[in-house]
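Posting this for the archive.
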Amino acid sequence: MPFTYQFPDPATADHDGLLAVGGDLSQESLITAYSQGIFPWFTENSPILWWSPDPRMVLFPSKFILTDSLRQSIKNSGFTVRIDSDFASVIEHCEKAPRKGQDGTWITKEMKQAYINLHKKGLAHSFETWHNDELAGGLYGVSLGRAFFGESMFYLKRDASKFALYALTQWCLSHEFHFIDAQQSTSHLKSLGAEDIPRHLFLKLLKEALKFETIANNWNISSLRGA
């Protein structure tokens, strides 16, 4: 039977948000972590590190900023969004995507397999932007209750990842999700409407979101075209 890591109180995390070291990436441990506002983030040859930063960046679906320029870009791009049609390719592209200020990737082989396992369980999902039947961008994350925990995104064509995020916000709105967890603050996500909130407020919102049943299994519904 897999070992389920027992996490400390998120309030005990250090200044950077590091909460714990060790454990495993079993489905049980990941579900336990996310339900407590904790996520793994580490690099190759490093022990598993668990984080709960303060403040926490979240995107409330109704606050997504669809600018006129982005709307026009999406409308004229020929993009189509699919959900859960090629999760493995999305996470692989996220692994290879260059990150400013980062030499390597935190999506290790172990992490990749852990999220593919969660996807097979119906708890991890991908929003994929396609162009002429080729993957142009996308994102993936974990869903519990009425919360979506965004993990990573990538693009091969301009605005492709933004379109995937827009599609996610629309899906969340139609299914009455409370928020999208963006984990750590970035200026890019702030420009799209995400905001920093105190950890204690995030945990309160998470507790409310987890009172609802998780929409598990494949989310692959009819594709969403340019807005």
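Residues 74 and 163 are 7 Å apart (CA to CA). DSSP finds seven helices and eleven strands in the chain.
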